[in-house]
């Protein structure tokens, strides 16, 4: 963490992927990785391979689906898109995340007493 | 829900591992290529770009492995590692593992064998279209006071015309005719059916056509012949259709040849022809087809679509009630109808018996699983250190348990393969034992469903006996094992093994007690007095067709029996139409002037038509009066003989000689039933080997009813009865070359055939009980030996502190006695609770026979003592100094 990059917190990658698909519509794995890289502004230290583990996990839960198609530069690629259940899950997870983040925020802002 | 969904996704994923692997490789390959492209466009060299792309993507191999694990349950590499490791474990203790595989193989082999029979007999549907629509239809009476009975033609015709339940309904009864005009006359079995048998069954002939409705009409003679007859007698001639053949002197036209696989009835393997009920119509008002009192037909129906059994029962009962009102003289006792599934009706008690045997053999397998489980438990104890070590090195618990389960499933499969091999050998032997006593059993074989069953049984048993050791690891604190080395055991820890032994003893008692009951019953059957002497008796049958003997039958038989008695080696000879042990029988009502009853409610009893000398030949004692003689002819006063059960039941033991009765038997349309004088009383006989009672019977002289055909010949010989067969055949051929002699058997053979079912039940259950007992004792021995080995140090301490060796012996024996005692107590309770399932198959013993139960408990106690004594003696001989140094 010394070089100013942050590791991805466990469990948060799923949420990031879900949100990306929600916001951007169907994307292939490479596209998702690019989008996260762009948004994180180079702050996150992400092994792009782990995106695929998250995709498989989400797919098994039924939150996203995948379909083979052709990418913008005419290559075969697997496109992932969010399902209706996935959107609901995203809503729940977002709320949850905001609650936890709020708590973390307040805790970390505690002033030293006395 | 979410968890279920995940599980399902993984099950599917596991199945698609290979395909998904390739797709995934392509997907990430593409990803890395795109990354490389990007770096190159930023100005890196090819080499640098490739390296940077890989760095950014992360470790591909690890990812692939993780992806596989997430996709299903086992990655192929882990899977093969587990299997390889399992094989090494199996190879490490060959003797122990061979013992386990053997126990399983015996259990699975026995199960597979029995299942192959159950599959063929019970599970396989009848070989006809939509077999679930086929029903058996029986005449019955409303109060169920009398047994269900066969059906008369006029009733059947009314059923056929009036019912709303059946798309087809067909009557059938056995017949046998003699085929002449071929090289050598042959006796053929066949069936007389209504015209629409083939449409009902949904079967077509392989050649020609089925019957037409008009072929039920008086005077028609048409046959369908079997494939086998077509081949054997007509050289598979394709132009056979339309040809005529001579059957018992009548001319029949062949209209079709049935496929080789066709059998009707399903258990009549030897049927060679089918003809229409026109043959039962002689055009007179007394013809079988017009006689409402002659109940000879079986009836099969095909339910219309969406008609239930209940609906059809209601429908048919309404018809039967109407007929009973309309024809009180004949139908009072047939006022209702019972419709049930054809397969169920055909199997009757036999289905239950087979399921009992299957249950028994399942218990044997359970006992075998118990043994293997116990041995695995022992081995698991030995491996505690290994497991603790692996756990300390980072293997998670699921991984360890999975390893154990893989090993036990491998054991199960090994046992399964060996067991299937055993089943291949054992099934034909079992089929020989069953003979013809179970319908459809002849079709049994080790086929795909049976192998599937064996595989399922192996897998399930592998999991069952693998669970015990696995459960230990799930619970136990592995690290503490590592600390104390897991060597000393002080009794209590091995509780699971003890529970298994108790269960095994209990199951063993149940099985052995069941076998004991069947053995007792079988001994009773073989020793019970049949009322006649079956030693040195030869029996056989031939036909005397009406076409030739209608007016000379009595004369022919008289002449024939005289010649038969004159053969060398023949002591006496006689004839009987309803010979005991042949399943032939007839029940006919009679009028009794001392107890007049309305016509529809007359008493009836079994009847037999016999010749002079029959009682002497069978050694049925003549208790009073006289036997029939050649002087009893159609013209002489009409006479009859009754048995003592008859005299007792209908005359309460009074002297019956000289009393008169009128049985409803007539010799053709021109001579109505006659009053007959009772001239003799004979002893009772058992007409079937498994009959529980000796029923009232009456006998009429065959010579006074010469229209009735045909008589079995009964010959008492001085030498081996079967050695007489050639002479007998020659004699009959010399009198009429067109009469083939058939069904030649000694009376002992007939009795044995009737006992085939109780015999196979007894042999099977005894074999399984024996197997169960041996497995249980081996298990007990193993557990005791292991317990002694674990307690060596404790015993050493006891001895060192002054315990006597006898006390040590007692201590070990007491431990075994407690296990066997609890098991026996549970076994007794289970036996008493389950005994009644056998009741229908027991003769001369109740289902809860205290002698049998006591004997079984004694047997288990004695053998259990022996199994425990060997380890106990070893415990007694422990050398305290060695034992204490041992750790």
Please characterize this protein's 3D structure.
- The complex is a heterodimer of chains A (114) and B (887).
- Chain A has 114 residues and is of the alpha+beta class.
- Chain A has helices spanning 12-24, 29-40, 50-61, 84-108, and strands at 6-7, 27-28, 44-45, 64-70, 76-82.
- Chain A has a single domain (6-108), classed as Orthogonal Bundle (Arc Repressor Mutant, subunit A), CATH 1.10.10.
- Chain A has 4 helices and 5 strands.
- In chain A, the strands form 2 sheets. A 3-stranded antiparallel beta sheet of chain A has the order 2-5-4.
- In chain A, helix 1 crosses helix 4.
- Chain A is globular and about 60 Å long.
- Chain B has 887 residues and is an alpha+beta fold.
- Chain B has 4 domains: 2-73, no CATH class; 142-334, no CATH class; 349-526 and 756-885, no CATH class; 543-739, no CATH class.
- In chain B, the strands form 3 sheets. Chain B has a 6-stranded mixed beta barrel.
- In chain B, helix 2 (17-41) packs antiparallel against helix 4 (60-71), helix 13 (349-382) packs parallel to helix 16 and helix 13 runs parallel beside helix 25.
- The longest helix of chain B is centred in the middle third of the chain and has 38 residues, at 397-434.
- Chain B starts with a helix and ends with a helix.
- At the A-B interface, helix 2, helix 3 and strand 5 of A face helix 1, helix 2 and helix 4 of B.
């Amino acid at each position: 963490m010394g070089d100013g990059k942050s590791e991805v917190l466990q469990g948060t990658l799923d949420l990031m992927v879900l949100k990306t698909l929600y916001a951007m519509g169907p994307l292939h794995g490479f596209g998702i990785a690019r989008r996260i890289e762009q948004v994180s502004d180079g702050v996150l230290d992400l092994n792009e391979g782990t995106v695929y583990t998250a995709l498989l996990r989400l797919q098994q839960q039924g939150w996203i689906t995948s379909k083979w198609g052709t990418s913008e530069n005419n290559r075969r690629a697997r496109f992932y898109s969010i399902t209706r259940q996935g959107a609901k899950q995203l809503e729940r997870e977002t709320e949850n995340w905001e609650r936890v983040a709020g708590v973390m925020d307040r805790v970390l802002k505690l002033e030293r007493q006395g | 829900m979410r968890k279920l969904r995940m599980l399902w996704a993984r099950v599917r994923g596991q199945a698609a591992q290979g395909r998904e692997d390739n797709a995934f490789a392509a997907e990430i390959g593409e990803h890395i290529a795109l990354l490389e492209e990007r770096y190159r466009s930023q100005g890196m060299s090819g080499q640098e770009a490739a390296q940077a792309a890989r760095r950014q993507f992360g470790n591909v191999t690890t990812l692939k492995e993780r992806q596989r694990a997430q996709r299903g349950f086992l990655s192929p590499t882990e899977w093969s590692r587990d299997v390889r490791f399992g094989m090494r474990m199996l190879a490490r203790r060959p003797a122990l593992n061979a013992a386990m595989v053997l126990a399983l193989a015996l259990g699975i082999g026995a199960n597979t064998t029995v299942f192959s029979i159950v599959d063929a007999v019970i599970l396989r549907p009848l070989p006809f279209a939509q077999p679930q629509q086929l029903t058996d239809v029986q005449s019955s009476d409303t109060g169920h006071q009398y047994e269900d009975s066969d059906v008369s033609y006029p009733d059947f015709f009314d059923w056929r015309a009036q019912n709303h339940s059946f798309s087809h309904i067909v009557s059938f009864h056995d017949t046998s005719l003699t085929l002449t005009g071929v090289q050598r006359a042959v006796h053929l079995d066949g069936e007389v059916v209504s015209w629409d048998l083939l449409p009902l069954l949904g079967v077509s002939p392989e050649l020609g056509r089925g019957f037409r409705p008009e072929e039920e009409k008086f005077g028609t003679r048409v046959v369908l012949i079997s494939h086998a007859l077509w081949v054997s007698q007509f050289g598979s001639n394709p132009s056979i259709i339309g040809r005529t053949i001579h059957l018992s002197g009548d001319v029949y036209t062949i209209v079709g040849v049935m496929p080789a696989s066709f059998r009707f009835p399903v258990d009549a393997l030897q049927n060679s022809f089918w003809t229409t009920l026109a043959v039962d119509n002689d055009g007179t008002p007394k013809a079988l087809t017009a006689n409402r009192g002659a109940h000879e037909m079986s009836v099969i129906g095909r339910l219309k679509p969406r008609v239930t059994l209940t609906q059809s029962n209601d429908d048919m009962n309404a018809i039967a009630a109407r007929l009973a009102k309309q024809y009180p003289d004949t139908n009072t006792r047939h006022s209702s109808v019972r419709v049930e599934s054809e397969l169920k009706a055909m199997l009757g008690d036999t289905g239950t018996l087979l399921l009992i045997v299957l249950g028994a053999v399942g218990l044997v397998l359970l006992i075998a699983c118990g043994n293997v489980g116990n041995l695995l438990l022992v081995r698991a104890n030995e491996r505690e250190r290994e497991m603790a070590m692996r756990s300390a090195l980072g293997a998670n618990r699921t991984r360890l348990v999975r390893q154990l389960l893989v090993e036990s499933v491998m054991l199960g499969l090994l046992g399964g393969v060996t067991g299937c091999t055993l089943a291949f050998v054992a099934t034909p032997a079992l089929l020989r034992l069953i003979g013809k006593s179970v319908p459809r059993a002849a079709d049994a074989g080790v086929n795909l469903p049976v192998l599937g069953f064996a595989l399922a049984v192996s897998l399930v048993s592998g999991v069952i006996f693998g669970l015990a050791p696995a459960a230990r690891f799930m619970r136990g604190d592995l690290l503490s094992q590592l600390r104390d080395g897991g060597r000393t055991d002080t009794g209590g820890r091995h509780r699971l093994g003890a529970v298994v032994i108790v269960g095994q003893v209990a199951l063993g008692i149940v099985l052995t007690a069941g076998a004991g009951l069947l053995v007792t019953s079988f001994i009773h059957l073989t020793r019970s007095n049949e009322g006649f002497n079956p030693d040195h008796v030869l029996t056989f049958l031939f036909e005397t067709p009406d076409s030739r003997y209608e007016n000379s039958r009595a004369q022919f038989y008289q002449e024939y029996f005289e010649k038969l008695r004159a053969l060398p080696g023949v002591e006496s000879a006689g004839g009987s139409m309803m010979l005991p042990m042949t399943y032939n029988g007839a029940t006919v009502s009679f009028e009794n002037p001392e107890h007049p009853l309305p016509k529809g409610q007359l008493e009836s009893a079994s009847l037999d038509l016999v010749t002079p000398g029959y009682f002497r030949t069978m050694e049925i004692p003549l208790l009073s009066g006289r036997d029939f003689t050649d002087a009893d002819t159609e013209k002489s006063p009409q006479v009859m003989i009754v048995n003592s059960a008859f005299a007792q039941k209908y005359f309460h033991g009074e002297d019956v000689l000289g009393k008169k009765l009128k049985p409803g038997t007539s010799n053709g349309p021109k001579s109505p039933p006659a009053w007959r004088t009772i001239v003799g009383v004979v002893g009772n006989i058992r007409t079937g080997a498994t009959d529980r009672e000796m029923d009232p019977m009456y006998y009429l002289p065959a010579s006074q009813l010469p229209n009735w055909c045909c008589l079995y010949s009964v010959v008492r010989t001085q030498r081996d009865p079967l050695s007489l067969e050639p002479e007998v055949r020659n004699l009959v051929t010399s009198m009429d070359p067109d009469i083939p002699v058939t069904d030649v058997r000694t009376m002992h053979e007939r009795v044995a055939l009737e006992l085939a079912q109780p015999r196979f039940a007894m042999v099977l259950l005894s074999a399984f009980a024996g197997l169960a007992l041996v497995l249980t004792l081996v298990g007990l021995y193993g557990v005791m030996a292991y317990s002694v080995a674990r307690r060596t140090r404790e015993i050493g301490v006891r001895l060192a502190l002054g315990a006597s060796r006898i006390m040590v012996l007692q201590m070990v024996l007491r431990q075994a006695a407690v296990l066997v005692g609890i098991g026996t107590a549970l076994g007794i309770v289970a036996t008493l609770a389950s005994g009644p399932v056998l009741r229908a198959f027991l003769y001369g013993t109740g289902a809860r026979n205290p002698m049998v139960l006591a004997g079984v408990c004694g047997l288990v106690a004695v053998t259990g003592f022996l199994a425990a004594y060997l380890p106990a003696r070893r415990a007694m001989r422990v050398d305290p100094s060695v034992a204490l140094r041992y750790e």
